[in-house]
Design goal:
The protein is built from 3 helices and 4 strands. By secondary structure, the chain is an alpha+beta fold. It has a 4-stranded antiparallel beta sheet, covered by helices on one side. The termini are far apart.
Length: 111
């Protein structure tokens, strides 16, 4: 009963997207002590109006990457609720995201 009473009964509805997303991903090699949430905050700091979501989909640790290094792969979702984006819009913000991560965290882009 206690568990059931703690459940929020208010349901929220959000309409499905009418326009397609542009999904891009990249992976960087960073120091092990860098938190992925800090990298995500930094990616959002470019203040893109079309970058809506950033997810980590892979973390890889290997001696081949270097001592105390890890590879982290990010997925970036770009979309606008009012129109279809152009590839150029998403591409511009995508590369800005990569550059800010490289400069702030001394990251190396994985090819």
């Amino acid at each position: 009963d206690a568990l059931y009473s703690s459940v929020r009964k208010e349901r929220k509805y959000s309409e499905l997207l009418k326009y397609p997303k542009i999904i891009k991903d990249f992976a960087v090699v960073i120091d092990n002590n860098i938190e992925t949430r800090d990298v995500i905050k930094t990616i959002f700091s470019i203040n893109s109006k079309i970058l809506k979501e950033v997810k980590v989909f892979d973390v890889f640790v290997s001696e081949n990457l270097g001592v105390n290094k890890k590879s982290v792969a990010f997925q970036l979702d770009f979309y606008d609720e009012t129109r279809t984006l152009t590839d150029e819009e998403a591409e511009s913000d995508f590369w800005k995201s990569i550059e800010i991560v490289k400069s702030k965290f001394n990251a190396v882009l994985r090819g």
